[in-house]
Amino acid sequence: MGMDRREFIKSCSLVAVMGLLFGCRKIPLEELAGDLPSLKRFEDEVKLALSQAKKTLDLVKVPTPGALKIPGASALNRFGMAIDLDACDGCGKCILACNLENNVPLVPDEDAARGRFMHWVDMRGSAPFMCVHCGNAPCERVCPTGAANHTPDGLSAMMYKRCTGSRFCGANCPVQARKFNFNDAQKLGLARQFNREVPLRDKGVMEKCSLCLHRLQNDRLKFKTSLTVDASAEEWRGRGVKTACAEACPKNAIIFGNWLDEKSPLVKLTKNRELYAPRELADLDPSVVFMRGRR
Amino acid sequence: MGEPRVPERAVGSIPFDHALHGDSIGLDCAACHTGSRASANAFMPSKADCMDCHRLPLTENPGIETLDSMLAKADDRPWSHKRHLPDHVVFHHGVHAAAGVACADCHGRGYMQNRYGAELFNMQSCLKCHRGETFKEKGFKPAATYCAACHR
After folding, report:
1. Buried b (16+ CB within 10 A) or exposed e, B60-84
2. Fewest CB atoms within 10 Å of the CB: A89, A121, B49, B126?
3. Which residues of A touch B92 (CB under 8 A)?
4. Number of domains in chain A
5. Is residue A268 in a domain?
6. Residue A26 lies in a domain
7. Nearest Cβ partner of B88 from A72, A161, A224?
8. Comparing C-alpha atoms, which of B150, B130, B146, B141 is closest to residue A73?
């Protein structure tokens, strides 16, 4: 055997050309950053979660949510959502939108295989299902540090830096709406900050749907700073704010709004509809409900 | 002894004096620190902002020639300011200004008497004022003290 000079030079130049082609390949900045997971992994995880979704959801009728019955509650605002079961087709776009908005981390493969996702929005009975922000929240009652607490405008908020990871709240939530960071997602390269507005969570911290708290905060601050221009403006009612899932829904099946504001799309669109909540939550004054029936 | 003290401003940067601008000619803070009245952050001026006025010979002061040559040499952004707050804390500068808190209440007169700057600032100072314990004489409205008002 042997390689003549002509063939040797040929193979050399081929290697050189290949090298050049690879060298010139445009690498997107995000991949250069090293550990950051690609967007596709987040999309794939949502698909996997959809394929494992629970098929049933036991619903009972509930009245329209009214003003909160907690001390210091606002008489003007109580934010919530209504999910239109007649419009929703269970596509799961809300889950991905939520994950990207709130920097929800991926989970390692073995957790994913067992259906243990960090997703704030689950699919149950082919409809999105998230923390319903109970007016009488069982999770907040058992929090030893006060990390889980209620805002005057009806959000069951979660202060990550206060959370010591006792997981009492998760144990006391009848519908497992809370997700615990068993893994250090940042260290494992499973977390990515798509949205600078929302901080990444550390290992050992409970998290859940925040009703896009940061959007409400930003809108309130914007309202307050424009007050100096228009002193006659009324109180802040959170008009115009939408959660990421509501924004992403192609069927408009998720309606975000203020239960106490007559002008809110939530109040307008839930009129003449039957409201439902999961059986376990019906007595806990949920802010997020399902709706069905006449339109 | 030991290493020389690190100068507070880089050598060759513009020797800016707050007293010459705000106090003596009545310039509003927001004229240079744009965004301080209405947006989340108060910004530092760029060189273009300085030049808006300094393109004209403004005073008879002999120092003005040194200043002009310094301005000509300076970067486009001679000053920068880094926020010390972590990203789970919301601090909206404009909301405080809109609520009637004057610049000097927190920042003092001039740049060196920064009352609530950097290491002097913590959550207790936020809460004290939000509960109405500091600035009693000013009669500010008590502000929100629930966690999610400022944390996310």
Report:
1. eeeeeeebeeeeeebeeebbeeeee
2. A89
3. 221, 224-225
4. 1
5. yes
6. no
7. A161
8. B146
Residue A101 lies in a domain: yes
With cut-offs at 50, 70 and 90, classify the pLDDT of residue A281.
very high
Inside any domain, residue A44: yes
Q: Note whether A11 contacts B: Cβ–Cβ < 8 A.
A: no
Local confidence band at A27 (pLDDT 50, 70, 90 cut-offs)? very low
Check residue B78 and give its pLDDT: 84
Which value does ipTM take for this structure?
0.80
Q: What percent of chain A has pLDDT over 90?
A: 77
Q: Which CATH number characterizes residue A74's domain?
A: 3.30.70.20
Mean pLDDT, chain A, integer: 89
Cα(A259)–Cα(A81) distance, integer angstroms: 9
Q: pTM for the complete prediction?
A: 0.83
With CA atoms as reference, the chain A residue closest to B151 would be: A159
| H/E segment holding residue A15 | helix A5-24
Check CB contact under 8 Å for B148 and A225.
no
Domain span at residue A241 reads: 34-292
With both helix axes pointing from N to C terminus, report the angle between A39-51 and A93-101 in degrees, rounded to the nearest 10. 140
Which residue of A151, A197, A225 is in closest CB contact with B38? A225
Q: Nearest 10 degrees: CA dihedral of A200, A201, A206, A207? A: 0
Highest mean pLDDT pick, A12-21, A101-110, B115-124: A101-110
pLDDT of residue A93: 95
